[in-house]
Design brief:
six-stranded parallel β-sheet, alpha/beta, 298 residues, 10 helices, single chain
């Protein structure tokens, strides 16, 4: 089932972004401008931002209302770099954070797991939920790479301490490393946290063909990750999960990866996770050990 998005409600957007920021962004409606060197507007950008955030919220509502078991929001602009008071990295509204906050505020969800597999760290999403324990943020990303955040010691603050989990990987990691990380770190974290909703910041720029990074994930690799997340959703959240598009800058790789994940959501079997190389195994093992004390936190 395919549906067009409606613009987001101000009340939902302002769960994450202050009204002053929203007004400042709206001032760019219908015109060209630059917010920073990477983040510019065309006459249609602001309308697209409202539609992207609206699509993310609607994708979540579709699964929370039991109309669908899973959903996929095909949106642009992406959102995970947008901080509450700052647009950056092609992002204006923090789409996934808005959807998570709306699910928490008015859809009855209590514990939300946000998984970000975009090759860049989701600094905006992290910033939005950094002091919360009702939204757990898990990010796997290439490091070092833009925006330079997402280090192991970024764990949250206040009530949210321990509810941010970053898994920075060096360039060159592929399907085996990602699958191992999801099985040996994400899976026990999800089992301990027991979310009632899972959202994925589904960026596909870790693909081996993508020009903006140096990872080696394949389209089959993304299908494997999607399948693991689907298993977690079925175990803990009555299958409720939403994928919300983030980055992806090689059109063939992007379209194929999205199609493979859509197949998983609609019942296809996931490819088996490949065996990691020796160097991948050693690095991921060390990374998992760094987080060992947090796997049983909840």
């Amino acid at each position: 089932d395919y549906r067009d998005a409606e613009p987001a409600q101000h009340a939902d957007v302002e769960l994450i972004h202050p009204a002053e920021y929203v007004a400042a962004l709206d001032a760019f409606r219908g015109r060209r401008g630059y917010i920073d060197a990477d983040t510019s507007t065309s006459p249609g950008t602001v309308d697209a931002c409202w539609l992207a955030a609206g699509a993310a919220v609607e994708a979540v509502h579709a699964v929370v209302s039991d109309s669908y078991s899973s959903s996929l929001a095909l949106v642009r602009p992406p959102g995970h770099h947008a901080e509450p008071e700052r647009a950056m990295g092609f992002c204006f509204f923090s789409n996934v954070a808005i959807a998570a906050a709306a699910a928490r505020a008015r859809m009855g969800c209590k514990r939300i797991l946000v998984i970000d597999w975009d090759v860049h760290h989701g600094n905006g999403t992290q910033r939005a939920v950094y002091d919360r324990d009702d939204i757990l943020f898990f990010s796997v990303h290439q490091s070092p790479l833009y925006p330079g955040t997402g280090h192991l010691d970024e764990r949250g603050i206040g009530a949210g301490y321990g509810y941010t989990i970053n898994a920075p990987l060096p360039a060159g990691m592929g399907d085996g490393a990602y699958a191992m990380l999801f099985d040996e770190l994400l899976r026990p974290v999800a089992d301990a946290y027991a979310p009632d909703l899972i959202l994925v910041s589904a960026g596909f720029d870790a693909h081996r063909m993508d020009p903006l990074a140096q990872m080696q994930v394949t389209s089959d690799g993304f299908a494997t990750l999607c399948g693991i997340v689907k298993e977690l959703a079925e175990t803990h959240a009555n299958g409720r999960m939403s994928l919300i598009l983030e980055g992806g800058y090689h059109l063939d790789a992007l379209s194929q990866s999205v199609a493979y994940c859509a197949d998983i959501l609609t019942g296809a079997s996931r490819p088996p996770g490949p065996t990691p190389s020796g160097s991948e195994y050693r690095f991921v093992s060390r990374l998992v050990s760094e987080h060992r004390d947090r796997i049983t936190r909840w």
